[in-house]
Amino acid sequence: MHDLSRGRIVVTGGSGLIGSAIVWALNRRGIDDILIVDRLDTSEKWKNLVPLRYRDYADADEFEARVLQHPSSMGSVSTVFHLGACSSTTETDAAYLMRNNYQYTKNLAQWAADRGMRFLYASSAATYGALERDLHDDGDLDALRPLNMYAYSKHRFDLYARDAGLLDRITGLKYFNIFGPNEHHKGDMRSLVDKAFYQIRETGGIRLFKSHRPEYGDGEQQRDFLYVKDAVAMTLHLAEQPAYGLFNIGSGQARTWLDLVRPIFRAMGVPEQIEFIDMPQTLRDKYQYCTCATIDRLRASGYDGAITPLTHAVDDYVRNYLIPDRHLDPLADRPQAQASAAVK
Predict the structure, then answer these.
(1) Which domain holds residue 85?
(2) How many domains does the chain have?
(3) pLDDT tens digit sequence for 121-134
(4) Nearest Cα to Cα of residue 309 among 238, 191, 230
């Protein structure tokens, strides 16, 4: 078992949604020997860092240069959570994506593997392309056909890691639809919960896409939604285990968009008001009507943690973070009151 409390931990993308939540969870364990690596831009994601405890911060490009030029100069790093990437599924600069999501990950993975560090990186459920059900993390990577450049840049590293023999020593995390506190800086890439909260506050209601397939009603398109607190618990579990290769990080259950948004109205104390609008023609051929992770390998690794029911996760997010405009705080956050209602 890998001891996260021994040696320094590097978290790239440490001011982002999952990265800052990783630091939050480590802080709650009393761990703060952490180096955060990121690119702080003009957004307000720096606010995610304010409540967190960490030893140092490094710019992402400067950190990579140091890894390449002085690979033995990083001291006692024992664990790397590589979560930094361009996560925009609409990014069209292919060269930027390959440089940022593929080459950067190659450099860090090889550096960490050569020095015996525990290395975990964010892949993506988007690598499954148009596939909808039975998304297996132990399937044939060569059979996958990503639908956008972001997904391809993630998939390309999965292929490289396999072919270079790295997947026997590192862990790739195929995150599904993660939502929760510390995501507001993501703009259009933030979850529907965050978007809907502000729409409801401003207009009293929200708009969802109509279904254009007869087997699905309006709003009944399905996704595998997972609360960021659960995603972090799964990630830290895998970091501590000799669990290598690719792992789906999801709930293992497909839920509808209506299941996701109705608890928002209840948490806000607002009457439900949902309008269905036509999906743009340009999206219809690429739109997935159902995604659901298989998490058999995660469970087989020994993860027996309960998964927060969707209604309780949304309620916690809205009441305890969105309404009071709070970020994850290792000192202020208490265990969720609904934990006893969580399901396996």
Answers:
(1) 8-182+225-252
(2) 1
(3) 999 999 999 888 78
(4) 230
